[in-house]
Give the backbone structure.
Amino acid sequence: MANFRCEGRIALSAEQVYSLMVSPDMQERVAKQFKAISAKAKVEERPKGPLLTLEVEEPARKGSGTEKSTMRFDWDRAARACTWTREDHQHRDRVKVRGSLRLQAEKETVSRIIEEGEIEISIPLIGRVLAPKIAASIERKRPAVYAFWESLGKA
């Protein structure tokens, strides 16, 4: 298992960032910006906050073809926070990716985003090597993702 932690600042209010992140259209745009061939999001409104499900198809990491995954974001509206999971369809039982995301208002027009997660790969030997590499890749790529969220809010 490997853990990751990412923090960033977005020059938008916490409410603006929250509104973007719970929008199916915006989640689809972010997925397509970062390699998705197709993305389809839907939201289920609930009293505590929305449950957003994002189905993504991406180019295969190795070889040809595509890989499909499902992300679920379980939001708490009052806390502006969510827990999330990612399920890779071809490795359902062997790969578990989960985490949390919190939005904090730093100033009226600046938000802090804090994301923590873990990757568990239940494949002997390979999992111990691959999980830390994936965690490092997530940490390395998150600033670009946060910048894209900011650009969506300013468009």
